[in-house]
Amino acid sequence: MVRVKWLKSAKDDLKDIYDYISLDSKRYAKHQVEKIQTKTEILKLGNVLGKKVPESDDEKIREIFEGDYRIIYRIVSVEEIHILLVHHGARDLNRRIL
Q1: Domains along the chain?
Q2: Which residues have C-beta within 8 Å of that of residue 27, sequence separation ≥ 6?
Q3: Whole-prediction pTM value?
Q4: Beta strands in 1-98 (DSSP E)
Q5: Which pLDDT tens digit goes with each residue over 56-83?
C-alpha cells in the first residue's frame, strides 16, 4: 500500500476551503473537506491514477478530481505520494507553484 502524505500547502488549502464554505454552512464545509480527503484514499492502491497536470511538464505531477476541486499530487516513489495542493477548477493554477 502506498503512503499518502499531505504537504502543508495542501493542508492549508483544505483549511481555506473549509473557511470559505463555512461562511455559508459549517456542515457543508465539513462535508466538502471530508469528500476531498476521502477521494485521496484511492491513491493508496498504488495504481497511477488521474491525469498529468497540463500546467506542468512533470509526468510525476498528476491530478484527480472531487467535484470542482483538483487534487494535485506528486508520485515520489512506488511507495509514496505527496498531495501538493487542492485547487478549485475555476481558478488559475498558473499562479501557484507546483
Answers
A1: 3-95 (3.30.2310.20)
A2: none
A3: 0.90
A4: 3-6, 51-52, 61-66, 69-77, 80-88
A5: 989 999 999 999 999 999 999 999 999 9
